[in-house]
Design goal:
Radius of gyration: 16 Å
Strand content: 15-25%
Order of helices and strands: EHEHEHEHEHEEHEE
Helix content: 25-40%
Largest sheet: 7 strands, mixed
Bound molecules: 5-O-phosphono-beta-D-ribofuranosylamine
Number of strands: 9
Shape: globular
Strand order of the largest sheet: 3-2-1-4-5-6-7
Number of helices: 6
Oligomer: single chain
């Protein structure tokens, strides 16, 4: 499968995918390009270090959100992906993007959806006093972190946890979960039926 990965930050989930592909010739997917909504991030440095094409589509370079969404969809389409992976991509895509990639666009979120959606899932779980939290890999739909759940991983919250410490522990689980899910979707195929995701064993 041809993957396009979208990032907005450090890109450690991207790096986990790169490392898995490098380590396992039968992984069943390869990254054909990495895109971002901003420049100057480690995620793009990691892509360039791996010799991958990159693109940056910034909201402020477009007259409005819909124009940005179309530009992002075009930039992704140019690489003919089978699957698009949001690995820490911090923008909500719109109708045009979903029209083209809905059903083959997965996101990873650092909380156990439907709990704590949005941009501060780790902080919100900690503030709430949750005893366990974790991460969710799901298909993206027209909501915010509301699409069909593919897999989840649980992480204990410790009494002395800071947001960063907890997020780092979550990311250890999240990177493994994302690598596993992307590999299975790529190798085994899948069907989405309502909120259920069926991946042949
Ligand atoms: C991940 O935990 C992702 O779920 C969240 O931001 C983090 C991105 O980490 N949205 P990285 O850029 O993959 O290191």
């Amino acid at each position: 499968a041809r993957l396009v990965v979208l990032v907005s930050g450090s890109g450690t989930n991207l790096q986990a995918l790169l490392d898995a592909i490098e380590a396992d010739p039968s992984y069943g997917a390869r990254i054909v390009a990495v895109g971002a909504d901003r420049d100057g991030i480690a995620g793009l440095d990691r892509a360039r270090a791996a010799g991958l094409p990159t693109f940056v589509v910034r909201v402020k370079d477009h007259e409005d959100r819909a124009a940005w969404d179309l530009a992002l969809a075009e930039a992704v389409s140019a690489h003919r992906p089978d699957l698009v992976v949001s690995a820490g991509f911090m923008k909500i895509v719109g109708k045009e993007f979903l029209a083209r990639f809905g059903g083959r666009f997965v996101n990873t979120h650092p909380a156990l959806l439907p709990s704590f959606p949005g941009a501060h899932g780790v902080r919100d779980a900690l503030a709430y006093g949750a005893k366990v939290t974790g991460c969710t890999v799901h298909f993206v739909d027209d909501g915010v972190d509301t699409g069909p759940v593919i897999a989840q991983g649980v992480v204990e919250v410790r009494p002395d946890d800071t947001e960063d410490a907890l997020h780092e522990r979550i990311k250890e689980v999240e990177r493994r979960l994302l690598v596993d899910v992307v590999g299975r979707l790529s190798r085994d195929g899948y069907r989405i039926e309502g909120r259920k995701v069926m991946i042949p064993a």
